[in-house]
Amino acid sequence: MLVSSNWLQELIDISSYSPEELAEIITKTGIEVESVTPVAEGVSGVVVGYVESCVQHPNADKLSLCQVDVGEETLQIVCGAPNIAEGQQVAVAKPGAVLPGNFKIKKTKLRGEESNGMICSLQELGIDEKDVPKEFADGIFVFPEDVKAGADALSLLNLDDKIIELGLTPNRSDALSMAGVAYEVAAAIDGDYELQEEDVPYSNKAAGDLISVEVEDKQANPYYGAFIIKDIKVGASPLWMRNRLTAAGIRPINNVVDITNYVLLEYGQPLHAFDYDRFDSDKVVTRRAKDGEMITTLDNQKRELKNHHLVITNGDEAHAIAGVMGGAKSEVQEDTKTLILEAAYFDPSVVRQASKDHGLRSESSNRFEKGVDPNRVERAGKRACELLAKYAGGTVLSGAVSVDQLDRSEKTVSIKTSVINDRLGTSITNEEIADILRRLQFTYEQSGEHFDVKIPTRRGDIELFEDMLEEVARIFGYDNLPYTLPQGSSQAGGLTLEQQLKRKVKSYFEGAGLHETITYSLTPKERSQMLVSPEIKRQAQSPVGLAMPMSEDHSHLRLSMLPELLQSLSYNVARKQKDLSYYEVGTVFVSNEEQVTKQPKEILRASGALTGTWISHAWQQEKKEVDFYVVKGIVEGLSAQLDLSFTYEKTKLPHMHPGRTALVKSGDKEIGFIGQVHPKLQKELGLKDTYVFDLNAEELFAQYTKEEAFQAIPRYPSVSRDIALVVDEQITSAAIAHTISEAGAPLVKDVQVFDVYQGDHLPEGKKSLAFNLLYLDPHRTLKDQEVEEAHDKILTAVKDEHEAELRG
Amino acid sequence: MKERLEELKQEALEKVSKSENVQSLKDVRVEYLGKKGPITEVLRGMGKLSKEERPVIGQLANEVRESIAAAIDTKQTRLEDEELEKQLEAESIDVTLPGRPVRVGGPHLLTSIVEEIEDLFIGMGFEIKEGPEVETDYYNFEALNLPKGHPARDMQDSFYITEELLLRTHTSPVQARTMGQKDGNEPVKMICPGKVYRRDTDDATHSHQFTQLEGLLVDKHVRMSDLKGVLNAFAKQMFGAERDIRLRPSFFPFTEPSVEMDISCKVCEGKGCSVCKGTGWIEILGAGMVHPNVLEMAGYDPKEYSGFAFGMGPERIAMLKYGVDDIRNFYTNDIRFLEQYHKA
Ligand SMILES: [Zn+2]
User: Fold this and answer.
1) CATH number of the domain that B140 lies in?
2) Which PANTHER family match (chain B) (predicted)?
């Protein structure tokens, strides 16, 4: 809502505040002021000029040479506008004047003729193109009424105004009118305002002779009033009215349309004027449209109606979509003589639906949708009649013809001072409450601390005690609330075990050299089903898709974070950032339904993607590219952090390198996978060798058991032995280590591979694996002989199970 | 004999002081303290002495031995230290060469902000609650006083999956769910951070996915001044002790009264500048007293229980605090962006 401060000043005395000060007060008490903007900042020296003569410029076809009376003197001015003519009253920027953009006017010569100033268009004076009346769009502005030569054109054109822009929340539609704003400001500054009574010069003839009204759906249209105004002379509306419309961002058109718009701004009630003759009927019938019924609206669009739309008809065909837009057929035109003026109340949801269906958001629909003041509907009609009589030569036939079932009653809300203080933490007195109600102009009955407050119908947003609590609080002033801390039952705040573990996992990854990323949950369909861990894939029917995605890029919920992580790597590599190590902890969305009806399972996962150089220490010639074992090391570190033991099994997965991918298990549960991205996908993404991991964090947290007891540090020394075995190259180190641990139990406490060798001195198809074994008895020092015996048992076992030979 | 011992002592000490290396000291040790050395010899000749003289000479001989041995030890330590020093000097390196780099990662800026806020509220006794990102229409809207057809639903156009399921448009459903679990007779004191989604085209100030952090306190006798006190503590902790707050009226369907909280502009100290659009204040969050309909739907009697709620956007806070000028930066994961804020 754009509020002219000049207009507001005429409604309520705000002269002791600058518009900026007022803005601050309004913001703090009720409605946020988004901006205060001068209509024409820094403009000066523009006066009214009377064009005494206007002749063709001797040296230029398209220029005119004018003698313009500007009060004290007559100036010769060269003008290029096509609509300049003798006898006009125009806006003249005299030499020394300043126009918007700090454009200074000087005496000059144009094609050999002196020009002492400039005759201005509205655009040149700083008025927005869209607000300029059509007749002046391509030329200078001509005053529509008699003004005095030499008078200040800026104030005549309201260019000295400042516009206060209100950011209205949906509940404060009462401030979608100057009257509403004035009531609000009155409460804020403790000023006086009341909407003036209308004064309509009714003629003797009754409107009922020319029109009747029928309403079929009184739920959707509880009030419909039709006024008849005859003898209309369509023309320009008065300058002050045009100025106010312009200030509010509405383009002046003609007096009839301008008056309905003006009343809309003044009262917040949309009105519509039909040309009685073109309406072509003596009855107005409002009804639900028929499916497929057509109407051509004012914007010359043919529109198809549905049976939930409400239309205004002449008993036969639709002449308006109720509350949204009028029809082209009965539009007011220059030759219009008689008007049907509609003042109606339409159900907000009906208007909202129609406005949505037709993609039409207008000043009217915006107000109807939020609910207009039932006590101002008819009054707004009267106000328009008053103005039509005054400024459009209209004769108003007496009495509105109406169908009326509108509830105009005022609701009562009861409040109690002690409850208000209990809720606000204040100690407001009964007197202060009474004073706040007076400022709001809410009537009430008081008995002690009880107030029964009658809520004016303009404030449809107030229904409950809490709504009144807000009214009291905001006028009392939030600045005046004390600062307190909650007194109630105290609890120890804190993180749950899962939340703690999530933080632990994240800081582990960060310590291990990974950067946390956050990617989008919505991905293209194709990506949503890529690189999905097998245990997720088994549970998921298909990715969950949006009913109406905004774009294909964000159409489906992810089943894996890896595709978006890889996109992030790719994005960076394209920007010459090549060494990357990313992780994300986030949810994937798993639904076991083909057609989703229930909320999908949201599973927390920890995923990572690494590419490029891992460690590079140039002068020591140390350079390590990210490889499988870098990533595996990180995952192993994670298991150590959580005190879990993971096992790895070679596997093949789509989009993964067939020889470098492993399933990860924790205990006997599959929890995810690690490995290299398939080189074909790497190439598509412009990535070098890239390794990923994708783990079920939720499962890891479930398996985590908090350290029960401190484990004593062994008091006896351990014995370390190495063993190098030659085995078939297919046999995994994990399998041998497993055999060693079993055969060496209980003395063998740890088995670590420390060398893998294949090549010279070994037969084809064989490899050598070297292990370091740790023997320990926590209760005594081991004897050499015991270790030897265990060692022999191990050698026998690996030979039996894996045909492993000791490497000589 | 006494003279002989004194003589030996002088001789030996002189040799010790003349020794220039560990080997020659060793020789001195063998020469004077060895089994065949002169002192041992002197002791052997003690048999010839009288009963009275014997202990005197014996004691003297021991003293001489000890002082020679002490002199040798001292000198030896010194020589060894000198030798080690020389050797270490030869092992010296260029300390200005760069060290072996350690890979260091770090948290995302949004995580840092969220965790900072979490810790702050944990300190005030709040719990952290989480909830599903795919929500039911009921929890996302209806339980929050936004029945079907409510105009405020337009304010947050949503991503629907089915008619009844959608990506949550705010984290408020977590509040509704948490309250619902309390049977209307237990207090709630929680914050809920999380991802939310709205039908916005991504640009510098809009993102179809973003983060929200909301807080809720429901108990008997919760006052609006408590909300002001808690928000003030939050603002000072988060933005600096010298920041002031102000509350001004606003509207949210799930709170009544509803307010927005501004903090005084840091750039101009409240005088008005381009950052605060000349107002001296910067909008930080929305808040209010929990709407009685919301309390009722969650099973609380609004006459007995009251509460406050607040909600903020960590992206916005990060943008204000660190001058991030494009919300898309949080989701493109440019390494140059991520690394900048690891100390945040
Ligand atoms: Zn500022």
Assistant:
1) 3.30.930.10
2) PHENYLALANINE--TRNA LIGASE, MITOCHONDRIAL, PHENYLALANYL-TRNA SYNTHETASE
